[in-house]
Every structure is written in structure tokens, then in C-alpha cells.
UniProtKB/TrEMBL annotation:
Its EC number is 3.1.26.4. One of its GO terms (molecular function) is RNA-DNA hybrid ribonuclease activity. Keywords: Cytoplasm, Endonuclease, Hydrolase, Manganese, Metal-binding, Nuclease. This is Ribonuclease HII. It catalyses: Endonucleolytic cleavage to 5'-phosphomonoester. A divalent metal cation binds at residues 32-33, 124. It is found in: Cytoplasm. The lineage of its organism: Bacteria, Pseudomonadati, Pseudomonadota, Alphaproteobacteria, Caulobacterales. It comes from Brevundimonas nasdae. Pfam families: RNase_HII (PF01351).
Length: 213
């Protein structure tokens, strides 16, 4: 029996950017976040305006890339893009505002950090954040839009570096390896040491530990 052919992997393109640029008559950035789900650390976001005449080869959704490949592409994106920006929302802001609004704050900061301000943004997902420009949401945008994919890489690499720094400040939790997500070493560190200032106190597992303390 013949095997059913598998669908070949598709890569993001500039199609969505091209259509939007024609309509708004100005620069369009891609926006994505990293770190909405972890128990610890800030949430990060990045905004990127790519140069269509100078695209780094191999841009893809950050989750589809190795750590080494993300690092290479981060350098290439920053060197070749028309503009790029990264923003964070702190643990305290996440606890005060909730993760959704904190993510929007990080996205605003990323766009405001751009050296060239866009007229519109392609934003990964389906939530319409209040950003300082027109937005178009794109479900699974990091696998469809090159600008969003580039932003996903910058948001991920920036947050990973910060979590490695937090690991040095707060040893024993394994932040450098799991980046604040749920993992056996993280759970063991919390059981042994209790929460540290890098933990999101509004998260249920952390809240429960604080209640038992």
C-alpha cells in the first residue's frame, strides 16, 4: 500500500506585510511575545520592521529553531532590519495587571523602542491589544509572517538571556535551563527554597506555596 504523502513544511513569507503596506502606505512591523506561561520571570515582546531587500535567510517561528540557530538569526535580524525593538513587563506588572494586559504593555514598549515608527502592526494571535498603531491579528502568525517570526526570535532570545541572569541572582530553581516554566527542577527548587522575587505571585502554584508558608 502506498504511503500517504505528508504535507511539506511551509515557511513564513512577506505576503501579509505586502498586502498591508499597500493599504496603509507606510511601514508595517511584526509583533510577538515570549513568556506568557512561565511561573517566573517577565513577559517579553519584540517588534520588527524587516527590509524586504535584505532578509536574513532561515527566519522561522522561534519554536521551530534550535537555540543556536535563534542566536545566529537574532544577530542577523538586528543587523539587517529597518528597525527592531524589545520590551518587557515585569513580574510585578504581571501580578498587578494580569498576564494579558502585561503582554500588551510589553508589546507597546517594543513598538515604542523602534527607531522608525510603523503605521500598522501584524500581531501574532487573535487578541486585539491596544497598541500605538493600527493592528491586524494573525492566528499562527509566527508560521505565516516573516515579520512576526522575526519578532518571535527576538522576544525569545531576549527573555532567555534575562532568565539566565535571574538564575545567577536566584540559584537553586534552574531558571537557566527551563526559563521559568514548569519543570521538575523548578518544582523541587520551590519546594526546598520557597518562591523568590522572580516568581509570579498571582500564579496558582506560587500562590498556594505562599498560603502554606
Amino acid at each position: 500500500m502506498a504511503k500517504t504523502p505528508t504535507n511539506p513544511k511551509t515557511f513564513p513569507t512577506l505576503h501579509l506585510e505586502t498586502v498591508l503596506i499597500r493599504r496603509v502606505k507606510g511601514h508595517v512591523c511584526g509583533v510577538d511575545e515570549a513568556g506568557r506561561g512561565p511561573w517566573a520571570g517577565p513577559v517579553s515582546a519584540a517588534a520588527v520592521i524587516l527590509n524586504p531587500d535584505d532578509l536574513p535567510p532561515g527566519i522561522d517561528d522561534s519554536k521551530a529553531l534550535t537555540e543556536k540557530r535563534r542566536a545566529v538569526l537574532e544577530t542577523e535580524i538586528k543587523a539587517r532590519a529597518i528597525a527592531w525593538g524589545v520590551g518587557f513587563a515585569s513580574v510585578e506588572e504581571i501580578d498587578d495587571l494580569n498576564i494579558l494586559h502585561a503582554t500588551g504593555l510589553a508589546m507597546c514598549r517594543a513598538i515604542e523602542a523602534l527607531s522608525v515608527q510603523p503605521v500598522a502592526a501584524l500581531v501574532d494571535g487573535n487578541y486585539r491589544f491596544k497598541l500605538p498603531c493600527e493592528i491586524q491579528t494573525v492566528v499562527k502568525g509566527d508560521s505565516l509572517s516573516l515579520s512576526i517570526a522575526a519578532a518571535s526570535i527576538l522576544a525569545k532570545t531576549a527573555r532567555d538571556r534575562l532568565m539566565i541572569e535571574l538564575d545567577a541572582e536566584h540559584p537553586g530553581y534552574g531558571f537557566a535551563s527551563h526559563k521559568g516554566y514548569n519543570a521538575p527542577s523548578h518544582t523541587e527548587g520551590l519546594r526546598t527554597l520557597g518562591p523568590c522575587p522572580a516568581h509570579r505571585r498571582s500564579w496558582a502554584p506560587i500562590r498556594a506555596l505562599l498560603a502554606d508558608a
